[in-house]
Write a structure and sequence with these properties.
Layout lengths: L6 H13 L1 H13 L3 H29 L3 H8 L2
């Protein structure tokens, strides 16, 4: 079974897969169009309360079942 050689490599891969380069490229334009800080605060709140817990849950499921994505989610499915 393959394992990550470092924690930082795993974190960077998880963030890269979750965020994608398109969102990083588009985010400054969205800030400019929608009022800067007035848009940034609700965005960060949404990330903190929705995206971060879902990413942590997905990582926990993967670590618990130690399998591929498909096999892990098949084990969770009722």
């Amino acid at each position: 079974m393959e394992r990550w050689s470092s924690h930082i490599g795993f974190i960077l891969a998880a963030v890269g897969a979750a965020v994608g380069i398109g969102n990083i490229w588009r985010f400054p334009a969205l800030l400019g169009q929608n009022g800067g800080g007035a848009y940034l605060i609700p965005y960060l709140i949404a990330v903190f309360f929705f995206a971060l817990p879902l990413m942590i849950l997905e990582i926990a499921i993967g670590r618990h079942f130690r399998g591929t994505v498909v096999s892990s989610f098949k084990a969770v499915r009722p």
